[in-house]
């Protein structure tokens, strides 16, 4: 089996197999060769596809939890909706998540610096460390990242040397549009009543004048930030 196919198969299996599914790769051409043209898949013949089978374990591992969690309302065909839900999880999980060997998930990729005119043809590539080597740990990590990211636990996939402070957690838990206000840097509206009625939002006047000293105090390590929203 080609390396690319094997890697994709492993990722899909990591997501589906714990829920009672099996997957097998095939080419679209193989499928089209067995059916009349009216049923052909409109894709190039060599396109990679995966056949997904349900095993007896699917009923207890996937369908029953799906019905209890009520992911979809109303239920019309529970089995088909359950399968569609899990196939949707595959698309999410393949996108993956980055884990730092020293900071776990408590970091972010912020940018890239390009240096035109500086060429280093002999610079060797650095292979990333496999800091989450086991299949079970990867499944747990991907589940946490995709479905429970608000509780921060996926970031501890490896024991971190340092985590975000409570102030950082409160900041990143706040919607971007509200972060300046959280820091005490938002400018109050000059005349809330002058907002155009066509705009799809309402500007509310502040109940009290902005208190600069309080804003500075929130940023001080000696004062606790407001509680971050729950998961």
UniProtKB/TrEMBL annotation:
UniProt keyword Electron transport present: no
GO terms (BP aspect): cobalamin metabolic process
Keyword Transmembrane helix: no
Subcellular localization(s) per the UniProt record: Cytoplasm
Cofactor dependence: FAD; FMN
Coiled coil: none
Enzyme Commission code(s) on record: 1.16.1.6, 2.5.1.151
Region (Disordered): 184-231
Pfam families reported in the protein's UniProt record: MMACHC (PF16690)
Catalytic activities: apo-[alkylcobalamin reductase] + adenosylcob(III)alamin + glutathione = S-adenosylglutathione + cob(I)alamin-[alkylcobalamin reductase] + H(+); 2 cob(II)alamin-[cyanocobalamin reductase] + 2 hydrogen cyanide + NADP(+) = 2 cyanocob(III)alamin + 2 apo-[cyanocobalamin reductase] + NADPH + H(+); apo-[alkylcobalamin reductase] + methylcob(III)alamin + glutathione = S-methyl glutathione + cob(I)alamin-[alkylcobalamin reductase] + H(+); apo-[alkylcobalamin reductase] + an R-cob(III)alamin + glutathione = cob(I)alamin-[alkylcobalamin reductase] + an S-substituted glutathione + H(+)
Keyword tags: Cobalamin, Cobalt, Cytoplasm, FAD, Flavoprotein, FMN, NADP, Oxidoreductase
Domain of life: Eukaryota
Molecular-function GO terms, alphabetical: cobalamin binding; cyanocobalamin reductase (cyanide-eliminating) (NADP+) activity; demethylase activity; FAD binding
Recorded GO CC terms: cytoplasm
Family: Belongs to the MMACHC family.
Official protein name in the record: Cyanocobalamin reductase / alkylcobalamin dealkylase
